[in-house]
Specification:
mainly alpha; Non-ribosomal Peptide Synthetase Peptidyl Carrier Protein, Chain A; 77 residues; 0% strand
Length: 77
């Protein structure tokens, strides 16, 4: 999956209004980022990449890039 495809999927799944989300976007700046969003990321990582992320791990992420890094940058084009 391309990085932008993942970002677009994340925006869609989290119903993010701001379409200016990039790899460097801070999660704190995303109004929709909450505990339910973390569950969405866990589900996406599992279903799309077969990667098991833990909520404790996600709570350390600061940016969209950190999410990708947690999934594994080698899984993105």
């Amino acid at each position: 999956m391309k990085k932008q495809e993942f970002i677009d999927l994340l925006v869609e799944e989290l119903e993010i209004e701001d379409n200016q989300i990039t790899e460097t976007t801070s999660l704190d700046s995303i109004e929709e980022w909450d505990s339910m969003a973390e569950l969405v990321v866990i589900s996406l990582a599992d279903s799309k990449f077969d990667v098991k992320l833990k909520s404790k791990e996600i709570s350390t992420f600061k940016t969209i890039h950190d999410i990708m890094d947690g999934i594994g940058l080698d899984k993105f084009e």
